[in-house]
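User: Can you recover a sequence for this backbone? Please restate the input before giving your answer.

Assistant: Of course. Working from this structure:
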């Protein structure tokens, strides 16, 4: 199997997992928490609070949901194009998380209103931060991994299977005639 194919399989598997977890969590939250008071998981730190949001991060841009839908479509398209190239596993994982999270919130926008104007379900309340969901979490974690992976080994793009093996001596072994004692 080619390196590009392995990368794409990893990327899309992670995206599918993130999308599935996001949509299952939102379905549960809508059934279990809609119309009810918040569930305090860790008092003063973490609550599960059902809410919806037509804007983007932190409720910004509620009057222009099409802007976020458009950005999501563009980012998703770029990831799909990039997925045809070989990449390091951490890059594939990070792009998969970003794609899965983006599609999770885009799905809400399409399913919960006309066009792309639907509301996104949010429920993770850290008390000191705006309420968010697992799609948002996947996007942020994916972006953080991508940032770290971009700085880590920038010259190391070879897959482990592409590294020289014992039958292909490196420059240090070239002068020794390849014989081992």
């Amino acid at each position: 199997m080619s390196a590009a194919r392995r990368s794409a399989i990893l990327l899309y598997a992670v995206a599918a997992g993130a999308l599935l977890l996001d949509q299952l969590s939102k379905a549960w939250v809508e059934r279990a928490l809609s119309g009810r008071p918040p569930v305090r998981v860790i008092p003063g730190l973490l609550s599960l609070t059902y809410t919806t949001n037509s804007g983007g991060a932190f409720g910004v841009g509620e009057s222009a949901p099409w802007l976020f839908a458009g950005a999501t479509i563009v980012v998703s398209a770029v990831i799909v194009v990039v997925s045809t190239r070989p990449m390091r596993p951490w890059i594939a994982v990070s792009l998969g998380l970003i794609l899965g999270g983006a599609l999770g919130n885009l799905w809400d926008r399409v399913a919960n209103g006309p066009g792309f104007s639907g509301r996104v379900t949010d429920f993770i309340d850290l008390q000191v931060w705006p309420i968010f969901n697992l799609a948002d979490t996947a996007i942020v974690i994916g972006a953080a991994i991508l940032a770290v992976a971009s700085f880590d080994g920038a010259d190391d793009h070879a897959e482990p299977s592409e590294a020289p093996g014992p039958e292909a001596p490196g420059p240090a072994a070239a002068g020794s005639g390849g014989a081992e004692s």
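That completes the design. Residues 155-181 have pLDDT under 50 and may be disordered.
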